[in-house]
Amino acid sequence: MTAKRIGILTSGGDCAGLNAALRAVVHRAIRNYGWKVFGIRDGSLGLMNRPLNYVEFDLKSVGDDMLRLGGTILGTINKGDPFAYPMPDGSKKDRSQDFVDGYKELGIEALVVIGGDGSMRILNELCRKGGIPMVGIPKTIDNDVAHTDYAIGFATALNVAGEAMDRLAPTAASHHRVMILEVMGRDVGHIAINAGIAGGADVVLIPEIPYTLEGIARKISEVRAEGRNHALMVVAEGCKTETGESVTTLQSGGQARYGGIGQYLAARLAETVEAETRVTVLGHVQRGGMPAMRDRIIASAFGVYAVDLIAQGKLGRMVAWQHGQVVDVPITDVAGITRAIDPYGTLAQTARGLGTYIGEM
Ligand code: F6P
After folding, report:
1. Ligand 1 pocket check for 142: Cβ under 6 Å
2. Which residues form the Phosphofructokinase domain (predicted)?
3. Facing residues of 312 across strands?
4. Using a 6 Å cutoff on CB, does residue 154 contact ligand 1?
5. Active-site residue among 14, 98, 142, 202?
6. Is 142 a catalytic residue?
7. Which of 39, 65, 169, 347 sits in a 20 to 30 Å window from 5, CA-based?
8. Calpha distance 237→284 (Å, rounded)
């Protein structure tokens, strides 16, 4: 009997813990089932382009150093939807068939996709088109994938944001300043609210809860009245201005990316609050570096379970972390849904209970 061949790819923005998941998939597939595992390079591009771009993994190629290594050794892309692929002349081309043909050329029988909600949706459509059996593993520092308490990368990003708070607090106190920390998270505030609670923020702004500048100013006055000479604020990059506009910067290729809400708030607060304010934009340091232990554990558990799903013929599923267990859910239940912070849930109520200003519903 010939060994089963499976493929694995990473798609969307990188984060810490991706290599730990690759390692787990390879170990489980080879040790337990004797399968062959092919790593596809640069997300869907590895199967779309010719020659195909892939590597066959063996156990030696995914040693324990993979647990400690940030990023993804396979490479990834977070643009270039194969259904509307951007061509050099500015037009868009449907290149989905190139992907399906590449899959067949490589002769694999199932695909493990490590991605966020956007990648999960696109890859699921691609796999449906090609009749390709797929299993998904959720990753994103934003932690916004539906039906899973944790996605790979979130724990590391949170640790980085929490450490930034620890470093900002003493300098804020020394200079009697208001420090604003702008964190990533796209349209949700998981990093912001968790880092705010863990780091003792006075103000936490998340896209899920509207705020007023007056509310922030009031909180800063309260802090002063309590005898403290400095204040800490965390703002999620996806928060809008008081009048409801997103704050973005244009990247190469004309793509808009969140960024700048911290500076906006500092400028507006300068009009009402008499305090020196400084802004720190944490940016991509939240995605890189050595994975947190929690991410390594989640990634390992997800990788092992994903391979077992393929072995059981349970396809079209995404692995998920629910109540301390790995479970699986239909990928179709996840695609296109964003898991946001519940404005009345435990985290929001905890922050309010601590006296943190988190906006007004
Ligand atoms: O989705 C992950 C994420 O890091 C977001 O938090 C952030 O808005 C975005 O990706 C940044 O994307 P890029 O790496 O393209 O700048």
Report:
1. yes
2. 5-310
3. none
4. no
5. 142
6. yes
7. 65
8. 12
Q: Is the CB of 184 under 6 A from ligand 1?
A: yes
Look at residue 252 and tell me whether its pLDDT is greater than 80.
no
The rounded Å distance from CA 35 to ligand 1 centre is 34
Residue 306: other Cβ atoms inside 10 A: 30
The string of pLDDT tens digits covering residues 71-113 is 999 999 988 899 999 999 989 999 999 999 999 999 999 999 9
How far apart CA 324 and CA 92 sit, in angstroms, is 43
pLDDT band, very low/low/confident/very high, at 1 (cuts 50, 70, 90): low
**From CA 283, how far away is CA 296, in angstroms rounded?**
22
Do the Cβ atoms of 274 and 176 come closer than 8 Å?
A: no
Give the whole-angstrom CA distance, residue 151 versus residue 144.
Answer: 8
Place of tokens 């092992």: 304
Sheet strand arrangement including 277-281: 203-205, 231-236, 178-183, 277-281
Domain 156-288+342-354 has CATH 3.30.70.270: no
Distance, CA 78 to ligand 1 centroid (Å)?
9
Domain ranges of the chain: 5-152+291-322, 156-288+342-354
d(CA 20, CA 240): 35
The reply to whether domains 5-152+291-322 and 156-288+342-354 share a CATH topology is: yes
Task: Output the average pLDDT for the chain.
Answer: 96
For the full predicted model, state whether its pTM sits above 0.90. yes
Distance between CA atoms of residues 92 and 277, nearest Å = 44
CA of 141 to the centre of ligand 1 (A): 9
- Helices marked H in the chain: 18-27, 33, 45-48, 65-68, 96-106, 117-130, 154-175, 190-199, 213-225, 261-272, 293-311, 346-353
Check: CB of residue 41 under 8 Å from CB of residue 22: no
**How would DSSP label each residue in 91-123?**
-EE--HHHHHHHHHHHT-SEEEEEE-HHHHHHH
CATH architecture under which domain 5-152+291-322 falls:
3-Layer(aba) Sandwich (3.40)
Distance between CA atoms of 302 and 321, rounded to whole angstroms?
8
Q: Which residues are annotated as a binding site?
A: 13, 79-80, 116-119, 140-142, 177, 184-186, 237, 278, 284-287
Q: Give the per-residue pLDDT at 93.
A: 95
